[in-house]
Amino acid sequence: MKTIALISTAGGAGRTTLAASLATLLARRGRAVVALDFDPQNMLGAYLGLDAFAAEGIGGALADPSRKWHESTWRNEDGVLFVPHGGLTPARSAACEARLCEHPRWLERTIGEIGLPETGVVLIDTPRYPCSHADHAARAADLVLAVCPPEPAACATLVARLPALRESCADVRLVVNRLNPARAMQRDALAMLRGATGNMPLAQRIHLEASMPEAFSRGAWIFDEAPHLQASHDLHGLAQHVDAWLPALTASETA
């Protein structure tokens, strides 16, 4: 079993959308997939089919050790096992932060309780880095996908935070999201990012597509509704990149 954290240093980078899309596409490829929402915003479930915000989840288990996070899981129609974060009061949020500080490997140990096969994968959605939740996710991960829109501020913050991120996880790969090649500023920002990050591998560039939120509002995936669009091809490309990085499926798993 491998663990992948989707992390960004800028708000609005699209990591939750990518986490849900990647989980779905990998499940359709025959992978055993767990999508874990470690973001207190508690939004990942909305992308995976929940009609309302999950009241309980892994956040509740973090705040109160007597609670069992696995009692709040559910599986969507694509076979993704979803672990929600759950809603928290300010007091329980403070308890979460305190426990993360006291137990630096809490998330790593918790993920170890998930009984996936060797070829399975846990995908972690995180809040904006740096924060305790995102740092725990990076330290628990075998691979970090650093999601960055090609905007100057987002690229600059990623460059500034990259050394700390690499200390938490040795394998950090870039996902450029919401790319609009017609914008000269984005081309300049990407050139700066490439020069400043040196040898950071590029997992995928994903083009901006205005119809993606519309598809989501209908409870659909853009790669199902409009498979011909560049963004749909890009999302499949990201899934292919991750699928190739993961251990090969056995004959029985691909049957």
UniProtKB/TrEMBL annotation:
InterPro entries: Cellulose_synthase_operon_BcsQ, DNA_Partitioning_ATPase, P-loop_NTPase. Gene3D superfamilies: P-loop containing nucleotide triphosphate hydrolases (3.40.50.300). It comes from the Bacteria. SUPFAM superfamilies: P-loop containing nucleoside triphosphate hydrolases. PANTHER family: COBYRINIC ACID AC-DIAMIDE SYNTHASE (PTHR13696:SF99), P-LOOP CONTAINING NUCLEOSIDE TRIPHOSPHATE HYDROLASE (PTHR13696). This is Cellulose biosynthesis protein. It comes from Caballeronia zhejiangensis.
